[in-house]
Structure formats: structure tokens, C-alpha cells
Amino acid sequence: MRPTDRPAPSPEVLARAARIRLACFDVDGTLTDGRLYIAADGTETKAFHVHDGLGLSLLRRAGITVAFVTARTSPAAEIRARDLGVEAHTGIRDKLACVEAMRTRLGLAADEVSFMGDDLTDLAVLAAAGLAAAPADAQPAVLAHVHWQSAHRGGEGAAREFCEMLLAARGGTDVDAAGTRQ
């Protein structure tokens, strides 16, 4: 998914990526395009990109814990996380405290945690992450504080590109037709 003219990640970013054992993702604007579809009865729908989903599954299969961390209470995000076999933390007002609790529970150092987010509510957790990432269309204040930026917009392959970079830093992303790493 990476454009051929995109420069390879820097050695520093690859070194950070190779240490990641917990990969956390904001939902709205990162795993989705940020638009909310709310019906008259109050139900909410979101569109998730299937390519991002496979990337998240490949991380999990590679032994990296994957989690959604979102401020919105979102049954759609919970269902998508369950489908992918990843953790879902929805309705989170303090994303940093949530990620720190996961990190502590897993016995990880701060430099073993990545976070991908797109807006001001993600700044604190991005600042604490060993590897901070953002989609191409993240807010300028976020882009100024991340180690790595996707060439893709949120909900349009940004998470997949990040997943592939994480996997490449660990030694490869080759998978067979069943989605199994080789």
C-alpha cells in the first residue's frame, strides 16, 4: 500500500518499531475517516477499511497486542475489535491512563508501546508512546509530535501502512493466501 516514491522510514523509526509489543489505535479519524453516521433512532455506524483490519490481524498473529482506544462509546468499534480479536477500550476519557494500564498489565516498558492517533485528544498518549504515528490527514498539532506519518488518510489504509512498517521492522510482512505470516 505504500506509494513507491515514499521514502523508507528512518533507522530511528525502524528501531523504535522493532521494539513494539503493544500497538494502540484511536478509532475515529484513524481507523475510520472520522465521519459519524447517526440515524434518527440514535444508532451510529462507522466504516472500517478491510485492509486496515488485515493489518491489525497480522500484528496480532505476530505476537503484538492490539487495542482500540477511543473516547466515544461505540458499539461499532467494539464489534469490529471483537471480529479482529483485538482489545476494545471505548468511552475512554483519559487515553493515556488507559494505555498505561495496559502497558503495566502486560509488563511492558514505555518504548514497547505505539499509538496511532489523529486529533488533540491523542496528544498526551502520543507524547508518552515509544512510537507515535498519525494518518496523513491528522491535525497539524498532532503531525508536529509524531515519529511517523502515513501517506494514507484515516480509514483509507493508514493503519495498514503502519502495521506493515511495524512488521517489516520485525523482519517481514510476507503472508500466504490464508493470511499466515511466512
Automatic annotation (TrEMBL):
<protein>
    <recommendedName>
        <fullName>3-deoxy-D-manno-octulosonate 8-phosphate phosphatase KdsC</fullName>
        <ecNumber>3.1.3.45</ecNumber>
    </recommendedName>
</protein>
<comment type="subunit">
    <text>Homotetramer.</text>
</comment>
<keyword id="KW-0460">Magnesium</keyword>
<dbReference type="InterPro" id="IPR010023">
    <property type="entry name" value="KdsC_fam"/>
</dbReference>
<comment type="similarity">
    <text>Belongs to the KdsC family.</text>
</comment>
<keyword id="KW-0378">Hydrolase</keyword>
<dbReference type="InterPro" id="IPR036412">
    <property type="entry name" value="HAD-like_sf"/>
</dbReference>
<keyword id="KW-0448">Lipopolysaccharide biosynthesis</keyword>
<dbReference type="Pfam" id="PF08282">
    <property type="entry name" value="Hydrolase_3"/>
</dbReference>
<dbReference type="InterPro" id="IPR050793">
    <property type="entry name" value="CMP-NeuNAc_synthase"/>
</dbReference>
<dbReference type="GO" id="GO:0016787">
    <property type="term" value="F:hydrolase activity"/>
</dbReference>
<keyword id="KW-0479">Metal-binding</keyword>
<comment type="function">
    <text>Catalyzes the hydrolysis of 3-deoxy-D-manno-octulosonate 8-phosphate (KDO 8-P) to 3-deoxy-D-manno-octulosonate (KDO) and inorganic phosphate.</text>
</comment>
<dbReference type="InterPro" id="IPR023214">
    <property type="entry name" value="HAD_sf"/>
</dbReference>
